[in-house]
Design brief:
alpha/beta, Lambda Exonuclease, Chain A, 2 domains, seven-stranded mixed β-sheet, 8 helices, elongated, binds iron/sulfur cluster
Length: 196
Amino acid sequence: MENNILLVNVSDLNQYLYCPRRLYYLMFYHTQGLNFVLAEGRSKHAHQSRRGQWYREMYLRSDKLHLHGKIDLLEGRTKLMPVERKHGTSFFDNDEVQLAAYCMLLEDYLDEPVRMGYLYLFGTNERYAINITDWHREKVLQVVQAIRNMTLDNIPEFVDNPKKCEKCSTVQYCLPEETKMLEREDAKKVRRERNE
Ligand code: SF4
């Protein structure tokens, strides 16, 4: 089936890195796929407002990066930096990659380097400055391409870490335990048939 994902939503990078199969269900079986279409009609930073050194809600889109997304909060008077707010008490590589994607969108819009952003954790009320490295940039490009290549008829594998499934909202579509059980049953049946 032909791929028609032209623009990837930044938040989808985080979902993909959590589990590609989860993003598959969100995109093709949920409402998230609409985002790509809705994005077409929006103008850049349509809802921008400013208070002191803070900007809120800057919508950005880059056809060059195949990315779009809304940065909820930006800090800085002369140098703007995105602030990505997270629930919980810790952050992971996927959160850093999401932040890096916002930095790349911002630098594409401003036409100047954005080498740092912040992750703020509601759980601890702490803020972490994250330097955006070549590793982050490469990862963003790689994941954007992987998402653009996703198609309805190609379901990604189950995630390796079953703990992720316990917290996954698409588990009712994915049915990891049930599918693995059926696969085991099928394998047993094939072995029995071979031995008959
Ligand atoms: S239930 Fe597990 S394997 Fe399935 S989409 Fe969610 S995280 Fe991925």
